[in-house]
Amino acid sequence: MTFVLLQTSISVPALQTLGVGTEAPDFLLQNFSGTKQDFSALKGSKLTIVLFWATWSRQSEKALKEMEKLHQKYSNQGLTVVGINVERQTIDALALKEIHGTIERLKISFPNLVDHGLVTFHDYGVIAVPTMVVLDHDRKIVFEMDGFPLAGTVDLLDFVTTTIEGKPASRELAQKTGYQPDKNAVRAFNMGVKALGSQRTAQSAEMSFKKAIVADPNFILPYLSLGTYYKDRGELAQAKEQFQHVLARKPDNAAALCKMGLILTEEGSGTTAKAMFEKALQADEAYMPCYYYLGYLTGKEGDITKASELFSKAEEMNPLDYQINIYRGKMFEEHNKLEEAATCYKNALKHILHRQ
Predict the structure, then answer these.
(1) The model's pTM
(2) pLDDT tens string 223-243
(3) Do residues 153 and 226 share a domain?
(4) SS (H, E, C) the chain
(5) Domain of 115?
(6) Would 111 be classed as within a structural domain?
(7) pLDDT of residue 9
């Protein structure tokens, strides 16, 4: 019951479905001198890379170093790199010292801002840390990458290089980055995302997402958002239909595979669900929710030790995601470990309340 109350008391962060072709939120954040800066003050004339990072993320240092190389090479040719530190909800003087110390130790020269209260972190719907979002001059997302996977990093570097230098993209890169959704579809999708932000207007989101799909049937974000909308309402058959539409177009889409796997888990089809989770991780090892979904399934089937390892992996990638504790708590609750479950739900609630 506690799990249900937590799930129904808040909406799923719709902006986790930001993607190529959509407009990224603006930001107004402080640098280490206390000066507030927004996107327009920092943006590059061609591209801007926004890097979300934290000192607790092992991969963040690698990402900072790689972005520094790009900054050194292309800062005079239209590229700006902006680091946004997402250390934790409340950042005190000691944390600021550690963050600034990391910047100095790594000799990072591009601008870095601190996300006090994690407002921008949640606005962008960051799934894993580090995350890199590449924006054009008008703040439209042209490339995104969660985590720091080897293959994805190569694609990111190739994309930035070809764009800044004006070179033609390789066929493989063009296939990955060439698609741009219809503008009317993006407009309708953004209206749906905005509608989800308020309980008063949430029902109108369904209509907006459907309009987006009609405008561009190959634009997968409305299917994902509509499927999530239906799942949260308990309309599982309709939710599965939307995720199947995504998989028909992109069979290796990690988000759709995981959402389908979660529904199958709750329906008792554990074997099929596990196969979907594993396929999702093969497609995108940085898609963090897959680890706690698979952790929930693994614990549900009785292997709590292995499940704990998966939940820990998810926390390593993003300890700020409250849903890790929700699914861990549900696992304990189903095994009648009520004290452990209560602790998990309390921790999830703390994260939720801090975001209000």
Answers:
(1) 0.83
(2) 999 999 999 999 999 999 999
(3) no
(4) CHHHHHHHHCCCCHHHHCCCCCECCCCEEECCCCCEEEHHHHCCCCEEEEEEECCCCHHHHHHHHHHHHHHHHHCCCCEEEEEEECCCCCCCHHHHHHHHHHHHHCCCCCCEEECHHHHHHHHHCCCCCCEEEEECCCCEEEEEEECCCHHHHHHHHHHHHHHHHCCCCCHHHHHHHCCCCCHHHHHHHHHHHHHHCCCCCHHHHHHHHHHHHHHCCCCHHHHHHHHHHHHHCCCHHHHHHHHHHHHHHCCCCHHHHHHHHHHHHHHCCHHHHHHHHHHHHHHCCCCCHHHHHHHHHHHHCCCHHHHHHHHHHHHHHCCCCCHHHHHHHHHHHHCCCHHHHHHHHHHHHHHHHHHC
(5) 23-177
(6) yes
(7) 35
